[in-house]
Fold:
Amino acid sequence: MRIRLQRHPSGPTSTIGALYQVSGDTSLSERWCWTCEDVIREKPGVPVGAWKIPGSTAIPEGMYRVVMTPSVRFHGKVLPLLLDVPGFSGVRIHPGNTSADTEGCILPGDSTDGTNVMSSHLAFGIVAARIHECIQQDEQVYLEVRNP
Structure:
């Protein structure tokens, strides 16, 4: 399964996006939820270390494999983890409502006010269940992150 995070332009403190399931090669079938992340600071062709502000920067755009693993930070709760994110480690999809709730992770929500997401636990439950179901069926899951 392929999921796409289509980001909107960053605001002063956060980046709102939408998470979709991808059908076929490129068409977006259904929006799963809204997302909230840190600010996009990426400069194409420039190493991550030159533009990353730890704890305040969205991950680079790209394609990432997603697995489900226990999180130490979330007391052993099994959460989606993005693998091989350049310059980042421990990037997860987890509940949260504002950019203060993330350090590079992706926060799902069922609505947005343009800066934050709301009902994150509900949206997270849906996203995590869909990812978990695919993995249980031995299907690999990939998240494609696209900047505006």
